[in-house]
User: What shape does this take?
Amino acid sequence: MQSERIVGKPVFRKEGLAKVLGAARYVDDISLPGMIFGATVRSAVPRGRVLSIEYGPGIPWDEFTIVTAKDIPGHNYVALISNDWPCLADGVVNHPQEPILLLAHPDRHLLPLAVGAVKIEYEELPSVHSIEESESGETVVWGEDNILKSYLLEKGDVDGAFREPGVVIVDGEYTTGAQEHLYIENNGAIAAYSEREGVTYWGSLQCPFYAHKALMAVTGLAEDKVRVIQVETGGAFGGKEDYPSMIGAHAALLAMKSGRPVKIIYDRMEDMAATTKRHPSRARHRTAVTKDGKLLAADIEFCLDGGAYSTLSSTVLSRATIHSGGAYHWPNIRVRSKAYATNTPPHGAFRGFGAPQALFATERHMDRVAKAVGLTPEELRRRNLLRTGETTSTGQVIRQEIDLPGWMERALDHAGYYEKKARFDRQNPDSLRKKGIGFAVFLHGSGFTGSGERYLNSLVGVDATADGRIRVLVSSTEFGQGTNTILCQIAAEALGVDYDVVEMAPADTSIVPNSGPTVASRTAMVVGRLVHSAATGLKQTLIASGLLSETYTTTELQEAARDYIARHGALCSMSRYEAPPDVYWDDQKYSGEAYAAFAWAAYVAEVTVDLTPYSVTVDDFIALQEVGRVLNPVLATGQIEGGVAQAIGYALYEKVAWDRGLMKNNQMTNYIIPTSQDLPKIRVYFEEVPFEFGAYGAKGIGELPMDGPAPAILNAIAHATGEEFNAIPLLPEEIAERLASRTSVAREMAAV
Amino acid sequence: MRSYPADYDLIAPPNLDSVLQLLHDEAGQWTPIAGGTEIMVLFGAGKLAARKLVSISLPELGQIVDDGDSISIGGGCTFTQIRHHAGIQKHFPLLAQCAAWTGGIANQNRGTIGGNLANASPAADSPPALFAYAAELELISVRGKRRIPYEQFHLGYKKTALAPDELIRAVVLPKRFEKALGYGRKVGPRNAQAISKICVAATGSLRQGRVEEIRIGMGSVAPTPLRLLRTEQVLQGTVPNAATIAEARRVLASESAPIDDIRSTASYRTLVAGNMLEEMLHVFAGASR
Amino acid sequence: MTVRQFSLRVNGTDHLVAAPPMTRLLDVLRHDLALTGTKEGCGEGECGSCSVMLNGVLINSCLVPLAQADGATIVTIEGVCGQEKLNRVQRAFLECGGAQCGICTPGMIVATLHLFEKHPHPTQEQIQEGLNGNLCRCTGYMRIFAAAEKAASSDSGAIR
Assistant: This one.
């Protein structure tokens, strides 16, 4: 491995100074002259027809700008994949909180009162609120059969394998609940319109070009009359991949009608109730395993609750389908997956994107399979984890040199697994505080699935300005995960200049090319690699021009750049995505090279289950992952720690309380995420097997940490208590109910 | 932010006497606001019915006074003051503990014990300790002062014995628990910044293995903070063992009335309340050996 | 329409603010005084991103009405480094990766400084407790604890 000057070093976060000074400017910190404020009137029913809208007394309605579906100049949908997501409901609503009309006024405080004064009458229609209700087909709320999308993935002869004599068949059902992103900065948008410039949208968002496409469709304006600018974004986690197109369209419509810049900022209650969440899931595993613990076949039925419109359900389902096989070699596997419509605000992208749901089920199930054939969980993994040269569930050959059993062993070793497992087994019978240790081994595909990256066709630039600054031109955005830092590190390294002279061009669609959305753990691997080649191109241009010699200092390169620009007008090097060779994906058969690369991991959780309040504390956590190359150790460690914390929340704390599609606990006081006093020390270890086609060998890491903690923790709880829990979030109330029924206390209670 | 600030008035008379006079003269019109950690949440959510507020952040209410026989905590004392007071830590450690697990640090710096008691949430953290320490409340109005045992303060869900023009002048704790055994535990959805699902505080003593004195307060198992009088009675004079614990659990379940709500369930609360009672008795029995 | 005048000393500068008495201190800071470093994350005193120092004490400014802050001395993130370019907590946050998206960072830094005033050399438990009212969704808190420890062990002063 080469040793680099900047890549691999813990350089400071590029925009870190502004952040620690409190000078970073997020959407609500920005004001434009003449700006007014917008708000949204939303459906109070899960499904129905709008019969009437009345504007109640006590509000100076003549001072308001009001926008309904009738005012939409372009198409009334928020463009994403299928165009079934209305920008504003037009007579019919399909989920609580669906936007119906928009209001704007100069007095920010008046808006909530105005929203409350709009009286809407509905004719309610039957609605559907779970996967089971939707799949029964009794009430059809979307399409012909409520099915937003379905996939069939098949490898080998599954039915034949199940008929093999002597196989042990193991069944399991696993469910996961919705999860709220809870970025600390709520969704917000500012839009301005003029006939000359068109619409400009300043947003808290991940994907400027997604919003650009959506605003073109809603406004009917031409490509160069829509401009999207990402401003400092206070957390996203996928929640600002799709939704910003909606809020941006709303702000744009109000700006167009009022003739003034309009700012819409959601408060926490609105953001939680009305915007996207992680898809709830249900997975049914049926596994055929030989008596000596070789996995023979999997028959998996996997379902997602997609909410009222299709939005991103097809792609979340796709990733879940492909990841359902986990990190194992399956000679035969079938995954039948469906995304069902329900009358809930549409679910959307959330870190992991279907993989956390699928891998929760698989990794819980593997412990169950181990038990069924009398093996330890670790021995079952040893006999079945993928090896170099074997094929995944989609028939993709693993070409990288991987050592999953070795990495698993290393993680178990760091955790003190064997010693602790034995010690807890000895000590638990005499204690009300049961200790357990459990683990998960898993994978996460980096980048878009299959031909996705080809379709995105990303374009990246590196340029120099007349005063000698070097800029990275990408539409990839920073929202805490370190985009700005690593892309500048890569450019500086490739150019041979100091990190400090490289900066990011503003994430403004009128300035930067479309390097694809900032999702799918693709930024370091795919976009980073393009930054590397664009930077290399810029250096080569300067050398070829004779203005720069083969070895040079930072200052010399800057001078050469200035000279070049003085002579030629500009200095910019562009690089377009090229698929790595041998990446073939069959969308019909759902087979082939699903991802250019996988990152691999083994996570170990140590827990205490306190039988007095039945609460679970995670006491120690090992996160070991193979990621190709660690571009910045401080940032990478921070990503893993943060992802593990969010996944501990997913497993043990974060429950959405639904009331027919309405989130009842839509406040931070009753939607519970871990505080500084709830988390263990999270111990992070990296392995590196450089990926040839990733920037400096890097693969993606942003989503990986979301996949492992929940099954590792529930496996640990099973060890601690002897009870199998298969649904998350797992709250003390559920544990109490199950454990209490095992003890005499319950008999006493029943007698009362 | 869902309220219109200009629709509200908030005045800050300079001393306690002028506040009490106002509450009397314009009875029912002014709502007292102390630290604001409850009222301002309602305000932010657009749910504050009161339109006229009077600040009771007053120096007369903000003192902790040790007069030898008792400690008197002014109604305007913050949870930060309470938890860090040396006398309270020594004589009433359960109360210091309850103050420490009320909200987070920033909210402890503003939230007051008087405001908390007047707000009368059954989930409040301090009331169990006030039961355990035989607290009395000193109430004050233009008519003068009166003292009531804390057991007489809560009349029903969010209904207290405060007259419309009365404030909580002080919480008075008698210094007779220095040798008592103590037990306190809060169960919330997480370790900090949490509204309790159930909380308990108890003081007691054992003689020759038998329960001699016991006082148990519990939160979130009834419409008001609850003193478990019948459970105390059934434990009086007994030796904690499997049978007496089982009986105590039965009585506890019958004298409490927890509900299903957004935070938890009735059956969980009943179960955990019994578990904490059992844990408490084990702690007391162990400590007195 | 209740508008009155209130006086505040914010980051060492005196201000007169004319506003309704129930205006949240958070809104006064952000809108009347254009100090946008203090953030609104929840409006219910749970997330701590609005935390500032009021008369030397850490509070959630979304829960303080202006009338109760009349005459108070307030320090926000904009005022924590005094004459220096960066104070030791800010420097430590940069070195340790304590800020990711940055939205919780101002409140987190103010809370850390408040912690140091009570515990100049805090233990891990004291750090965890001192920051228990500041929620972070990005970091999992580890890098923030590391920054607090690093800042506690460095020399230069607290809030001026």
In short: The two ends of chain B are 56 Å apart (CA to CA).
